[in-house]
Amino acid sequence: MSKIKDSTGQTWLQRFRKARRKKVKIWGRSLTRSLASFLGRQSLVGDTPVLDSRHFPFLASFTGNWQAIRAEAIEILKHRDAIPAFHNISPDQKKISKGTNWRTFILFGFGNKLEKNARQAPLTTKLLEGVPDLQTAWFSILSPGYHIPAHRGVSKGIVRAHLGLLIPKEAEKCRMRVGDTINVWRPGEIFVFDDTYEHEVWNDTDEERVILLFDFDRPMRFWGRLVNNTFLGLMKFTAFYQEPKKNLADYEDRFEAATRRANDNMEKLSDND
After folding, report:
1. How far is CA 51 from the centre of its chain?
2. pLDDT, position 266
3. 174 DSSP β-pair partners
4. DSSP classification of residue 121
């Protein structure tokens, strides 16, 4: 019965799963909006689009080592074609991630370290391990001329940091709006923001933009932490979590294979010399 297809080529089971996923998304957005006001009041670091970095002293290790982090990113970019687009990892991002314009090399996903990817950036990984309650981290690679449409994050219980690594010379043309603020990346500079405020990105230059992006728990009072941890725990049972988890493992293996082939080819060339 589940294998009988309709006029669109979908089985009954596929239609059921699609409808269920749609309902879960609607429920999730509604719950997120309901929680936002409460979590904002529970915040110990304010509730503004961009947060004062002085609340997060551990960020100094990133600005102090940004050139070494950039060097690791440059090595990874040598295998750019093996780095997946954001929507290849998380299909829910297909509205804001098109083609290969926004690539993501993920080091931590949903609090878990991707061991194989982490070996490609050992210093960056070590620094990230020092971030309290780290959730996700990746090198975010944006193509020239690309615009990431306005969107919102999932939980106000998480805040996001951006560290500038490879920034176009015309930096003012490569920018992000968060709420009513405009932010420009600079090499070696870091800022923290609340991605539940509407935000969008423009790279109106002919150069690639590369940053280190990482999410960590917002410092909150006890009840805020409890509610946020419960919400994130429930999210782990949804496709929003399960699909990226599976895709991460797949693309991690692909990248490792690509680097292995490249190293083997270099060794063969050396032998021929």
Report:
1. 18
2. 44
3. 203
4. S
Where does residue 57 rank: exposed (0-12), middle (13-18), buried (19+ CB within 10 A)? exposed
Query: What phi, psi does 77 have (nearest 5°)?
Result: -65, -15
User: Considering its fold, how many domains does the chain have in total?
Assistant: 1
In a domain, 49, yes or no: yes
In a domain, 221, yes or no: yes
Instruction: Single out the residue of 127, 10, 137 nearest to residue 67, CA to CA.
Output: 127
271, part of any domain = no
Integer Cα distance of 74 and 37 in angstroms:
40
- Residue range 51-74, pLDDT digits in tens: 999 999 999 999 999 999 999 999
For residue 136, the SS3 value is: strand
Sheet order of strands, 190-193 included: 50-51, 190-193, 158-166, 209-217, 134-142, 102-109, 112-113
Give residue 1's pLDDT: 47
Query: Nearest 5°: CA angle at 145, between 135 and 137?
Result: 10
Task: Give domain status of residue 184, yes or no.
Answer: yes
Residue-wise DSSP of 206-235: SS-EEEEEEEEEPPB-HHHHHHHHHHHHHH
pLDDT, residue 258, reads 82
Q: What is the pTM of this model?
A: 0.85
Q: Please tell me the distance from the alpha carbon of residue 35 to that of residue 48, in angstroms, as a whole number.
A: 16
The alpha-carbon radius of gyration of the chain (Å, integer) is 20
Range of the domain at 162: 38-264
CATH code at position 156 = 2.60.120.330
Mean pLDDT by 10 residues, the chain (273 residues): 56 59 55 81 96 97 98 97 93 92 95 93 98 96 98 93 98 97 98 97 98 97 94 76 79 84 56 56
- d(CA 122, CA 252) in angstroms, rounded, equals 15
